[in-house]
């Protein structure tokens, strides 16, 4: 089969190749999926550039891509929930990363039937952003009546998170650039802050929850806008000790991270706040939640551009531009 693979660390343009490799063989608990569409995520280019070397070890050549939709072509002996011909969607864990390919073997417990009202491209847009947000809001116990700031409402994560937070019944502040204000408002956000003309720090006060999708100074400043006892769930900020353990980091690495987040620790204490860096865990139960939300028309797929498989590198370069309006799709079929 044809698969896009990472050749080595470095820039996106020169470190990817389309290789002809063996079709994956499945274990007892896995299904073989013929991939019809995949979606890109910022982690894809970050891995190539070596930005995650400390937590993700690669042996080259290696696969790329997490999100996918497609059709089950084979099932392992112990698979109970799927049959050949089922239309499914999934996000795979680190060790199975390789959805920019024609086929993939996925554990049954990380697969879900595709929402009935979505085509393959739409279904492939949802797993990573949906799973991450469901797990983040669950961890931060977002509930009806809470006020939440969601940074980058026009991104892959933000465009899902706004819809999901409104569904939970929260009041949503979000930030984006001028060109995106109109359509982001239509997703349901209560107050869209145009970061080019407004400063969110002047407008957002004492919120219950900040969903930090931007990191660095945005993580630190989250503690200026949350209420005492509020929650900051980050996708990209400093690694807390619990998450460091989940990453399997040794004591020395964890001590290093302890000192690296010392400024943040001070901010957390000042606000008696809760802070957590979320690391998404693929699973079919949370995919079922996404499926239900979509089938009940409570969440829709937001797609910016669709690239043919042969133009995957351009899809990744567009992702890296940081200007995506929703999700970027790679279409295999
Ligand atoms: N920890 C995890 O498990 C996990 C899972 C998924 C994602 N992530 C991380 O979460 C982050 C967000 O992912 P994503 O898929 O949403 O990224 P994305 O789709 O690439 O985000 C692009 C969007 O960000 C907006 N943006 C950029 N700078 C902004 C700013 N200063 N203020 C407001 N909006 C801004 C852009 O709008 P404009 O063009 O208007 O600027 C654009 O629409 C990434 O770093 C990703 O790696 C982590």
Please outline what is shown here:
This protein has 2 domains: 2-126 and 301-331, Quinone Oxidoreductase, Chain A, domain 1; 129-277, 3-Layer(aba) Sandwich (Rossmann fold). Helix content is 31%, strand content 26%.
Topology:
Elements: E1 2-6, E2 16-20, E3 30-39, H1 42-48, E4 62-63, E5 67-75, E6 87-91, E7 103-107, E8 111-113, H2 120-124, H3 127-139, E9 147-150, H4 156-168, E10 171-176, H5 181-186, E11 191-194, H6 200-203, E12 207-212, H7 217-225, E13 226-234, H8 241-246, H9 251-260, H10 262-270, E14 274-277, H11 284-295, E15 303-308, H12 312-321, E16 327-331
Parallel strand pairs: 9-10, 9-12, 10-11, 12-13, 13-14, 15-16
Antiparallel strand pairs: 1-2, 1-4, 3-5, 3-7, 3-16, 5-6, 6-8
Organism: Kaistella gelatinilytica
Protein name: NADP-dependent oxidoreductase
Pfam families: ADH_N, ADH_zinc_N_2
Q: Using the coordinates shown, work out and report the CATH topology of the largest domain.
A: Quinone Oxidoreductase, Chain A, domain 1
Mean pLDDT: 97
From the alpha carbons, calculate the radius of gyration and give it in angstroms: 20 Å
Main sheet overview = 7 strands, mixed
What's the helical proportion of residues?
A: 25-40%
Count of spatially separate domains: 2
Shape summary: globular
Q: How big a fraction of the residues is strand?
A: 25-35%
Terminal CA distance reads 14 Å
Chemical compounds bound to the protein:
NADP nicotinamide-adenine-dinucleotide phosphate
| Elements, N to C (H/E) | EEEHEEEEEHHEHEHEHEHEHHHEHEHE
* The CATH fourth-level homologous superfamily of the largest domain: Medium-chain alcohol dehydrogenases, catalytic domain
Structural class: alpha/beta
Low-confidence stretches: none
Number of helices: 12
